[in-house]
Amino acid sequence: GGEPVRVLVTGAAGQIGYALAPMIARGLMLGPDQPVILHLLEIPPAATALEGVCMELTDAAFPLLQGVVATTDPAVACKDVDIACFIGGFPRKAGMERKDVMSKNVNIYKSIASGIEAHAKPTVKCVVVANPANTNAYILKKYAPKMDKKSITCLTRLDHNRMVGQIAERCKVPNAKVDGVIVWGNHSSTQYPDVNHGTVGSKTIREAINDDAYLNGEFMTTVQKRGAAIIAARKLSSALSAASSVCDHVRNWVVGMEGRKYVSMGVVSDGSYGITEGLVYSFPCVCKGGEWSIVQGLEIDPRSKDLMEATHKELLEEKDLALSCLEE
Ligand code: NDP
Does 187 participate in catalysis according to the annotation? Predict the structure, then answer.
């Protein structure tokens, strides 16, 4: 029971938004007893599609759903929200240069920054999903300077969950037996899926799998290229797993860790592990009382250090490219 929590979803009529809205309304993000009000933002060309989503939300008659604010006005969408899931963005189409997509998307995040800063609750918690997710989050932070840096994150939980899924499948154990995996860096193919601190039941992952060639090779590329494999199979990008991971990210941040050792989150670096302060980089985090903190003091072997540095370097370059794309 209690007061409803207001959750913003941008790009709400898109694939991920369509999968995410019912999950939130069913309590998968904030718990089975927490009423919610959905704030759904779309761009004008998708306004009619959004009306259709609203009709379906009405028809599903979710007990926890206490209202829907569907709009194409960012100020209305951001008004008093407690949680903001930024999914809206241009997809990369065939023939588009990386810089073209980058330019479109970082400018979207520059313009939404002032809306969220001005209209959301001061305690709002944000997660950016739209690509380039880390860099969009960086831009959001830069243009919402009054917001707490710790309130802006990006999604790498899907990559984290992909690691868990692969290891559980390989070991033939339930997913819940796998813990302590880490995604370092960018939500891109340079991410470093690190199993060195993870466990399967009472064993380390390396003991349980007992195949370092697999863990350092095929396992990593499977996780890094999973998005492309899903597009090849489905002819559409991942949506249900992305939406489910957004719920996991927010729930573990806001509600609690549910016994997990750590979760991967793209957060604003404080310089931990030598990562440039201010950059949005995925780290192992623990959350308590609605606050994340970066797990400190993990031992990093030389191979890991190189991999963490490569994705760090990509993010520094991405940031510079993004800054050069910003419009006045
Ligand atoms: P999706 O809902 O499939 O994806 C939305 C965003 O999430 C994309 O940027 C996508 O990046 C990104 N993403 C991040 N991680 C993943 C992942 N693991 N799997 C899949 N996607 C991931 O896109 P749709 O095109 O269906 O929907 C986007 C919505 O946004 C549309 O409804 C559109 O109207 C709206 N929109 C809003 C804009 C705005 O706010 N100004 C501008 C343009 C569109 P990638 O493309 O790299 O997969």
Answer: yes
The token pair that represents 38 in the structure block: 């959905």
Cα distances (angstroms) measured from residue 262 to each of 55, 189, 200, 284: 38, 22, 14, 6
| 61 is annotated as contributing to ligand binding | no
Q: Tens digits of per-residue pLDDT, 56-72?
A: 999 999 999 999 999 99
CB count within 10 Å of CB 75 equals 12
pLDDT tens-place string over residues 150-206: 999 999 999 999 999 999 999 999 999 999 999 999 999 999 999 999 999 999 999
Ligand 1 pocket, 239 CB below 6 A? yes
| 91 CB within 6 A, ligand 1 | yes
Question: Radius of gyration over alpha carbons of the chain, in Å?
Answer: 19
**ipTM score of complex:** 0.93
For the record, the structure tokens of 74 come out as 């960012």
Distance in angstroms (rounded) separating the CA atoms of residues 180 and 192: 14
**Pick from 279, 270, 254, 266: which is nearest to 123 by CA?**
254
Torsion from C-alpha of 276, 139, 253, 81, nearest 10 degrees: 160
Residue nearest to atom 32 of ligand 1 (CA): 14
Catalytic residue among 187, 197, 249, 312: 187
Determine which helix (DSSP H) or strand (DSSP E) holds 283, and give its type and residue range: strand 280-288
Q: What is the value of pTM for the model shown?
A: 0.97
d(CA 73, CA 225): 36
DSSP string, 52-92: HHHHHHHHHT-TTEEEEEEES-HHHHHTT-SEEEE---PPP
